Amino acid sequence: MKNIANKPLSRLCRDGLLASIDDVSFLEYDAVTGMRCYGEFSPLLQSIHKEIPSPSLLLAKPREPYLRAINALSCGVDTIQAEDSESKMLLGALPVVKTSPLETNWAHALVKQRALVIPNWGIIVSAPNLLASTVIFSTACFAIKIKFLVDFVSSPTSLLLATNGKASETIATFLTDVKKRPARLTPLMRGIFTDLPSARKAMVQAGRRLVTLGLVNASFGNISYALADALLISATGSFLDDLEEAMVLTSLYQKNRQDKLASSELPAHRKILATGKARALLHGHPTFVVALSLFEASAKHTKVKHPPTICGVPVVKGKTGGGRCGLDKALAPVLTKSNIAIAAGHGVFCTGERDFHEPLQNMLTLENACCQAYQRLITAFG
Predict the structure, then answer these.
(1) Coil, helix or strand at residue 170
(2) Is residue 217 part of a domain?
(3) What pTM, to 2 d.p., does this model score?
(4) Edge to edge, what strands does the sheet with 230-234 contain?
(5) For residue 30, is pLDDT > 70?
(6) Which of 41, 43, 65, 157 has a CA 20 to 30 Å removed from the CA of 122?
């Protein structure tokens, strides 16, 4: 894809969301450079662009088992509701296109929705630019995966019928991705880091490793390190595997002008690290931790809406960012006693006294444990 292939699309292949670049088509338009298109379905995207002048359109067929999961979850419904908090915040629901995707009479739905799912075809996205389109596509894939995993242990019969008995194959493929991970990390940079260049280098390394291990979608999650009375934190909208120029230096103790550039989880990072109990903080969205926390929170299966622990790790609830119900208020008290906590339906927060090695190892260990716990659930439900 000369002069068109770029990091966002390559990232989708690297993250295992696309089998090949050939499985994606996109259109991007602005008044200065005009329109550029790529892919087999460029004519379809041009037709849609005439209906809704979106700056960027992307149509992609995700690799298996995502497409099988889309087909199963689309049976008998008009929308697929995202379950995890990050996908709910970014997407809400994913409407299902019922007519032929070669028609454009459904295109108006993209005015109000960032993404639509098309059974047997994949996902179509409308966004301000190609980078944002790939982020939305990736988020939709994560939402589909989490929804499928939770629904399978909540009501396995429905998914078995929707997949002609092949739901277990889909689950097995998702599990295989986890089983490829190591049990132990190769060492990360060792701290304490007392200067800004060292802290930056350590954050870049930890962010890349977090993504490589599949513990977070590259555009999800955040990371920070406390340096005396300053806080170095990943920027809002940053990719954790590409942090070199995407960090913000702000105050550890009080709000300032730099805060608007920082991750939306800044209130939680600031409140947790301001206690002085830790210097490093990682936040990721490991698949099976998120899926288990949603399943355990279901009123159908437990009388306790938010159980105190999953695999021995405390569970809290709260909303992204600050505010009366913000995660910062729930996490800080727990992380003064523990170095790891689960935010229900959201992800994992891990702290380190000196560097990022221990928190990343703890997150990896928890995700592996939750994967095993999920497998036991499948066995228990037959």
Answers:
(1) helix
(2) yes
(3) 0.91
(4) 247-251, 230-234, 222-227, 280-284, 347-352, 340-343, 313-316, 309-310
(5) yes
(6) 157
